């Protein structure tokens, strides 16, 4: 039983005999030391890690939102021991949209040379680049 709860019971002259089994179990559970932060989390064998949350978009997203999320997740994965899984269905839709935009761009800009070397290819940061001064943001070259 936590010390402050015990002191409060004594202060209010609450008989400890009146504590029910469930109440006592809950009080005892609060006093158990948590040795590891991941101890309450279940290990997911399929993904090889501890599942601790979900990411939800609260509004409709567009390609710019998705691109920003990809960059943010890549940065998080590079800096922390975290693996982020995106649903395969979503990856398929994103790839289809990218191809559609690429084809539309080619049709719209006929006669103009497309320069893919100026595009943002989203080079994924790595631990070595994020910890050094050589971290380059993915910006178009001028």
General description of the model:
With 142 residues, the chain is mainly α. 44% of the residues lie in helices and 3% in strands. A two-stranded antiparallel ribbon has the order 1-2. The longest helix is centred in the C-terminal third of the chain and has 21 residues, at 88-108. The relative contact order is 0.08. The model is unreliable at 131-142 (pLDDT under 50).
Question: What attributes does this structure have?
Answer:
142 residues, mainly alpha, 5 helices, 2 strands
Q: Segments where pLDDT lies below 50 for 5+ residues?
A: 131-142
Coarse morphology:
rod-shaped
Mean pLDDT: 77
Radius of gyration: 26 Å
Number of strands: 2
Largest beta-sheet characterization: 2 strands, antiparallel
Q: What is the H/E order?
A: HHEEHHH
- Order of strands, main sheet, comes to 1-2
Report the structural category: mainly alpha
Distance between the termini: 66 Å
What share of residues are in beta strands? Answer: under 5%
Query: So how many helices?
Result: 5
Share in helix: 40-55%
List the helices and strands and how they pair.
Blueprint: H1 3-11, H2 21-31, E1 43-44, E2 49-50, H3 63-79, H4 88-108, H5 127-130
Antiparallel strand pairs: 1-2
In short:
The protein is mainly α and 142 residues long. The protein is built from 5 helices and 2 strands; from the N terminus they run ααββααα. Strand 1 and strand 2 form a beta hairpin.
